[in-house]
Design brief:
Length: 494
């Protein structure tokens, strides 16, 4: 296999404001849910996700009683002050797209104000102008694992239907402000994550919920309706806008050819399709209604909700892909350390087991480039809408040498193998339009708040405790990715 990617293919990288920006108390920004997430040393967390923040602890933080603790997402890697330098580095690599998010609390500090924060709007004006200076297209997520903390405390996040109108006001504000600067938008990042991480994905304090499953699926319904409504708003403001889905994708294999294992894998993959079906087809799949009935989940659906979903589907599908998963039967013990914690086992929470055919990263992610090809084909075959791989990358330890280099051949190999599988999909007719690798510059980990888990082509001199110069250094992968982009992927096959 040889050849180039299409000349209009979007090459770039992806970040999230709460992991990148810093400046948490500057420019009129309010506190967000991500600002509450403290660092837990790996020796204690063992790499597990540390996102569950008790309501009582948030109250203590807001009262100033825990100010001496380490909150890495408040500092990020200080893109707030380094954005010109960072964007210049992205341009040096040849980016044609940069996926980023707007920090909701920078625009509406409490979330439910009627008037936006002009300083926050101006900051993103400056960022978009800098991107356009280098002909880099912004791909912007409205809510990426954060919301103003006031919305979580006051409304319990997306559990309240009030958030739909609040989110509409936020979206209308930024769509109007940036209607001539941004074309590609994603309303909510990895919208499926609310199933596993309700606080991160939905601003929900589970201890305040009477019925966890009921709350999660009702909150998700509110997110879906809000996403559809802001899609309509976007098209009314600028018909040239392109709105996309964003799902955290992990394709499931059966542990064996035993029918129970195959059925478990099918259930896992149906969970992925559940979200794509609503966003891309505008309908809840039949098996979802059966699941709701079985589990006594009664969604409160207003009269026009289902019509709104049906009439305002996305223009393209995007998804993150880091690993595949393996589903075992109900009698097998779960044995996979991965980003998403177990929350009991049923059709929407399959039992994950180790796939012995695959190597794993230092953080327990199973490395499977072919799984990306399978996932792309599945999404294309079901929906026939353009696809962007909006996150993919290798998070691992990097070592800065005495001459300020990082020799990360392991990252080059990981991304190369995934890109080659993407090229196979293109050759087979898939309308694959872009790739934004996760963390083109080192940022704070979403799940574990570590800096030591690095994804970037650019090394940032900063450790888990905020010590360092914040200086940026090009890794070996920086020059490699630059050549991939320059040759439109042809260098992958040399």
């Amino acid at each position: 296999m040889t050849g180039k990617f299409p000349s209009n293919f979007l090459w770039g990288g992806a970040t999230a404001a709460n992991q990148l920006e810093g400046g948490f108390d500057l420019g009129g920004k309010g506190m967000s849910t991500a600002d509450m997430v403290k660092f837990v040393p790996r020796t204690i967390s063992k790499g597990a996700n540390t996102e569950t923040i008790p309501y009582e602890e948030v109250q203590q933080i807001l009262e100033g009683n825990r100010s001496d603790e380490n909150y890495p997402k408040r500092r990020g890697v200080d893109f707030y002050h380094h954005y010109k330098e960072d964007i210049a580095l992205f341009a040096e690599m040849g980016f044609s797209v940069f996926r980023m998010s707007i920090n909701w609390a920078r625009i509406f500090p409490n979330g439910d104000e009627s008037t936006p924060n002009e300083s926050g709007l101006k900051f993103y004006d400056d960022v978009f102008d800098e991107l356009h200076k280098y002909n880099i297209e912004p791909l912007v997520t409205l809510s990426h694992y954060e919301m103003p903390i006031n919305l979580a405390v006051k409304y319990n996040g997306w559990e309240s239907r009030d958030l739909i109108a609040i989110f509409e006001n936020y979206a209308k504000t930024v769509f109007t402000r940036y209607k001539d600067k941004v074309k590609y938008w994603i309303p909510i990042n990895e919208i499926n994550m609310i199933l596993h991480l309700p606080y991160t994905g939905g601003g929900i304090f589970i201890e305040k919920c009477e019925n966890e499953l009921q709350t999660i699926f009702q909150s998700l319904h509110h997110q879906m309706v809000a996403s559809a409504k802001v899609t309509k708003i976007a098209r009314d403001i600028n018909p040239e806008f392109r709105i996309g889905s964003m799902v955290g994708m992990a394709y499931y294999y059966p542990k064996s050819n035993h029918p129970d294992d195959v059925l478990a894998a099918q259930s896992g993959n149906r969970v992925n399709y559940f979200f794509f079906d609503i966003l891309s087809k505008g309908t809840y799949p039949e098996y979802a209604w059966a699941y709701f009935k079985k589990n006594n989940i009664t969604l409160v659906i207003e009269e026009d909700d289902l019509d709104i979903l049906k009439e305002n589907t996305v223009d393209f599908n995007s998804f993150s892909y880091y690993y595949s998963l393996c589903a075992g039967s109900k009698d097998e013990e779960s044995s996979l350390v991965a980003f998403v914690p177990e929350r009991g086992y049923d059709e929407f929470h399959p039992r994950k087991v180790r796939n012995e055919n695959l190597n794993v990263t230092d953080w327990g992610f199973q490395i499977d480039p072919v799984g990306l090809r399978i996932a792309i084909n599945e999404v294309w075959d079901r929906y026939h809408k353009p696809i962007i791989i909006s996150e993919n990358g290798l998070g691992t330890y990097d070592k800065l040498t005495e001459d300020n280099r990082v020799h990360d051949q392991y990252r080059i190999q990981y991304i190369k193998e995934h890109l080659m599988e993407m090229k196979q999909c293109l050759d087979e007719g898939v309308d694959l339009i872009g790739y934004t690798s996760w963390g083109p510059i080192d940022i704070v980990s979403a799940g574990t708040t570590e800096m030591s888990k690095r994804y970037g082509f650019i090394y940032v001199d900063l450790d888990d405790y905020g010590h360092g110069t914040y200086r940026r250094y090009r890794k070996d992968s920086f020059y490699w990715y630059k050549e991939v982009i320059r040759t439109q992927g042809e260098s992958l096959f040399r």
